[in-house]
Amino acid sequence: MKKLKVLDLFSGIGGFSLGLERAGMETVAFCEIEEYPVKVLNKHWPNVPVYEDVRNVTKERLEADGIRPNIICGGFPCQDISIAGNQAGIYDGERSSLWGELCRIIGEIRPNYAIVENVTALISGDKGRWFQRVLRDLAEIGYDCEWHCISASELGAHHHRDRIWIICYPKYAGRATTEIRESDQKGNGSHSEGSKPASKSKGSGNAEILADTNSTQFKRGCISEQIQQEYPNIISSGWWISEPSVGRVANGVSRRVDRLKGLGNAVVPQVVELIGRAIISTYDK
Questions:
Q1: Which of 149, 12, 16 is nearest to 72 (CA)?
Q2: Which candidate in 31, 73, 78, 103 is catalytic?
Q3: pLDDT of 121-168, one tens digit each?
Q4: What fold does the segment set 5-283 form as a domain?
Q5: Residues 213-257: pLDDT tens digits?
Q6: For this structure, is 78 an active site residue?
């Protein structure tokens, strides 16, 4: 099978592409507006073009450059969503409203899959309306989706970094078997304070299926035993030996603030790799 080609939007320092390439995909283009992350991308992917502004990325422009992705991924800005931010929201927030551009690009290009990441406050914010907006927008462009909250600590990290991951695919294309959690039928999962995961989509493309995201009864699943056994090199504390020595307090480290900001905004490649492998296993069937 030919490698699936990835368009990485809101790329940051390349965490999405690192994980998807470990899974066996190929990044064909980035989009990142910040100066320092662009330098990181150019260093590690010197032959991959980097578009500056997501608002200027169009199907026509990509095709003119010979770029035809199968996968679109992006963690759109969380500054207006995060509980540490201004809570302006996905509608009026200057940065988080860029969700609309990500959705537009998915609708124009119509990839086989799209992967969207953000903070878990996306689910509960504005009494669930932010997340309803995301699901509704995807349904309107003909995409179904499944979602789960997965934290870095579930893969052995020494920090929590709980995030929502949304896997999207064209409606009527058949349901993707991308689940990487065990269902919590017996109610033995754990629930994180401030994180209220929603139930996953049933594939109807209807935003009204969203469960009561403010309910305190949501329980977390966990990375399944099957996945742990199949990918022991991904879900391993060995990945995190270098923590916490990432220059948090070291003086004299070049661009230390920029590096810390890049790490803080980055996705966890190990989570992305698991999702990528699940997608490939489905796509290959």
A1: 16
A2: 78
A3: 898 888 888 899 999 999 999 999 999 888 887 877 777 888 999 999
A4: Rossmann fold (3.40.50)
A5: 443 333 344 566 666 666 666 666 555 555 555 555 556 667 778
A6: yes
